[in-house]
Amino acid sequence: MVTAIELFRQGKKQEIWDTYCGFLDLSVQEFMELQRKHLEQQLPGYAASRLGRRILHGRAPRTMEEFRSTVPFTTYKDYAPFLLARDEASLPEKPRAWGHTSGQSGEYDFKWIPFSQRMYEQIGEAALASFILSSAREKGDIVLSEGMKFPYTIAPPPYITGIGAQRLLELFPFTSFPPLDKVVGMDFQVRMQEALASALSEGMDYFFGVTSILLKISENFSKLGRGGPSGTRMRVTPKAFLRIARALISATLKGRPVQPRDIWNVKGVLCGGMDTSIFKDKVAESWGRVPL
DSSP secondary-structure letter at 72? Predict the structure, then answer.
C-alpha cells in the first residue's frame, strides 16, 4: 500500500482521505461483512495454535456462526497463562510487538497483549485517521503538513497508546516533543515539562492525550500574570517568552485569564479518558477546538 506521506507528497489528499477515513462511508451491512471476512480469515490459524486449541476446546470453527456457538465468553484470566508469560510459541504467528495496559489492581501488574504485524499497522492507521478527523472541517479536508508538532503526553511503548504513537510516527513525519527515542524510561513529570517547554518555544499543531492533562495545562496557563504557571520549572526561551507575552496581551484585552488558545492555534485535539464527554465543552472553550 502506498504510504500516507507518499500520497501527501504527490498531492493526493483525496486518496489519503479515502484510505484512512473511507470507512465512514460504509453502511452497517458493509461494515459487518468486513468484520465477518476478517474473522473467518483468522480462524484456521487461531484454531491450529496452542492458545486457540485451549479457548476453542480443540474445535475448528470455519464461520462466524460456528465461532459464536463454539467459543465461550472469556476474560483476560483465560489468556493469562499464555500472554503474561509472553509465550510466542502458543500464538498463531510471531508478534510484531508486545503491548500492555496499566493492569488491574491486586490481580495483574500489566495485561500483556501480542500485536501481530497487521495489528501493529492498523493501530497506526487508526491513530492517523484520528489526527485527520480531529482537524477536518468537512468531509475530505486534510489538514496535514510534514513536521506538524504535538507534545508527547501519552504513555510510551510498551503501553498500547505508545505503540499507536510509534506506528503513527512511522506513517507520517509528525514532530513529537520530546522525540519518541527519548520518552521511553523518562519520568512523567520531566517529560511533561520538556514537552510543554518545547511547545512554548516551537509551537503546537495537535494535542494528543488524556483530557485531565489537557485541563491541567489550561489551569496552569490561566495563572499566567498572577504568579503562574504553578508547580513547573520549565525553561523559557526568547521565542517562548514572546509567545507568552502575546497571549497575555490578547487575554488582557479580552478581560479574561490566559487560555491555551491564546498561546497556540492548534489544528486538532484528540482526547481520551472517562471524563472526556463531561469536559468536552470546557476543552473546546479553552483550546479553541472541539476534542475528538
Answer: P
What is the tens place of the pLDDT at every residue in 79-130? 999 999 999 999 999 999 999 987 776 788 899 999 999 999 999 999 999 9
Q: How many CB atoms lie within 10 A of CB 5?
A: 15
Domain ranges for the chain: 4-79, 121-287
Strand partners, 206: 268
Pair type for strands 112-115 and 97-100: antiparallel
Cα separations in angstroms, 248 against 74, 228, 257: 55, 12, 8
DSSP assignment letter at 23: G
Could you tell me which residues come within 8 angstroms of residue 101 by beta carbon, excluding any fewer than 6 positions away?
110, 111, 113, 159, 160
AA letter at 16? I
CA distance 3 to 291: 26
Does residue 231 carry a pLDDT above 50? no
Cα radius of gyration rounded to whole Å, the chain = 22
Cβ-Cβ contacts under 8 Å for 263 (sequence gap 6 or more): 200, 221, 243, 244, 247
DSSP letter for each residue of 244-258: HHHHHHHHHHHTS--
Q: Which residues contact 88 (CB under 8 A, 6 or more apart)?
A: 94, 95, 114
DSSP per-residue string spanning 197-234: HHHHHH--SEEEEEHHHHHHHHHHHTTBTTTBSTT---
> How crowded is residue 160: how many other Cβ atoms within 10 Å of its Cβ?
19
Residues written for the chain: 292
Let me know: does 154 contact 208? Beta carbons within 8 Å: yes
What contacts 237, CB < 8 A, 6 or more positions away?
A: 197, 200, 201
State the maximum Cα–Cα separation within the chain, in Å, rounded to a whole number. 72
